């Protein structure tokens, strides 16, 4: 009887311990997620940091592969929308993440429903052909979208200061909505592969200056941190106190030493409080952990600097209520 009681007590204690929630992960905000329908034609596996070798090619030969799968453990692409959603939501809950996501409105709504309070929807335009300024302003005013992004005129051969985009930025300024603009890299051979209008020169952060001058109340973050134009990026941030950057895309595609040099340089130049963590999540769910690992393992950053990049800076930039993340 005594043994039975002791055993029961032990079991009870054990179940109480197990029932307690695991300690909550410190909050993370990912400002750059693409919520899109899974396309089986663009669903291959991928090796992170695949741009460590760009041997180029010959115009008479087939174009170089955009992605490389020659590594010990390629990341698997989700095969269905549901598989992608389940994986994204599970990661968000496990890592206590909130995401800023753009893309298919139906997918955005499903993700929001599955993870209430953790998905901040954004809507972007990349050329005036996408929608009229009036339709865009109506969408921004609907209350559903809280962010304007991803704005990517570079792929269309358009400068972000081109007057054809001005009314769209004016709408965001008027409605007090932050804007994320793609500036910088597009991957290996973008102009030869899928985007003949893509111009590397149109990723120059200085091209934002005229637009920023016309919209002094606009809050802009430069997606992909203008990689690889670090000097121009630093000069632009020095001159424009409201400009932030995100680390999306290049954090998992270029060689790791190159990525760390770029982040280190931004911090060294005094902009550690204006770097936002972003993945550029597409179809490979594990990309989130791989990319966050780059910040976690950056031994040149202090714990506080990592927390700024992974969370604090985004709270400030997007004017979020910090108490909601406790
Ligand atoms: Zn982009």
UniProtKB/TrEMBL annotation:
Residues making up the signal peptide according to the UniProt record: 1-19
Pfam families recorded: Amidohydro_2
Top-rank taxon: Bacteria
Domain Amidohydrolase-related positions: 29-320
Gene Ontology molecular functions: carboxy-lyase activity; hydrolase activity
Protein name (Swiss-Prot/TrEMBL): Amidohydrolase-related domain-containing protein
Protein species of origin: Chryseolinea serpens
Alphabetized UniProt keyword annotations: Lyase, Signal
InterPro entries with a match to the protein in the record: ACMSD, Amidohydro-rel, Metal_Hydrolase
């Amino acid at each position: 009887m005594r043994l039975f009681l002791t055993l029961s007590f032990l079991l009870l204690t054990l179940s109480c311990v197990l029932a307690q929630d695991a300690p909550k992960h410190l909050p993370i905000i990912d400002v750059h997620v693409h919520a899109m329908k899974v396309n089986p034609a663009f669903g291959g596996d991928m090796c992170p940091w695949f741009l460590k070798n760009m041997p180029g090619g010959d115009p008479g030969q087939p174009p170089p592969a955009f992605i490389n799968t020659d590594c010990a453990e390629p990341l698997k692409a989700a095969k269905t929308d549901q598989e992608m959603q389940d994986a994204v939501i599970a990661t968000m809950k496990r890592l206590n993440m909130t995401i800023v996501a753009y893309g298919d409105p139906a997918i955005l709504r499903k993700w929001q429903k599955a993870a209430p309070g953790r998905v901040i929807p954004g809507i972007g335009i990349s050329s005036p052909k996408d929608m009229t300024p009036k339709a865009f302003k109506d969408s921004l005013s609907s209350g559903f979208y809280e962010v304007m992004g991803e704005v990517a005129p570079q792929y269309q051969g358009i400068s972000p200061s081109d007057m054809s985009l001005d009314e769209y930025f004016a709408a965001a300024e008027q409605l007090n909505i932050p804007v994320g603009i793609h500036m910088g890299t597009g991957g290996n051979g973008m102009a030869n592969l899928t985007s003949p209008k893509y111009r590397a020169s149109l990723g120059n952060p200085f091209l934002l200056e005229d637009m920023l001058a016309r919209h002094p109340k606009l809050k802009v973050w430069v997606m992909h941190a203008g990689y690889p134009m670090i000097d121009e990026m630093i000069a632009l941030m020095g001159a424009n106190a409201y400009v932030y950057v995100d680390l999306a895309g290049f954090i998992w595609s270029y060689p790791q030493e190159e990525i760390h040099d770029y982040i280190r340089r931004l911090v060294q130049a005094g902009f550690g409080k204006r770097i936002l963590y972003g993945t550029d999540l597409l179809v490979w769910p594990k990309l989130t952990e791989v990319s966050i690992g780059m910040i976690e393992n950056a031994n040149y950053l202090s714990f506080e600097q990592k927390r700024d990049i992974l969370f604090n800076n985004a709270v400030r930039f997007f004017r979020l209520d910090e108490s909601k993340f406790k």
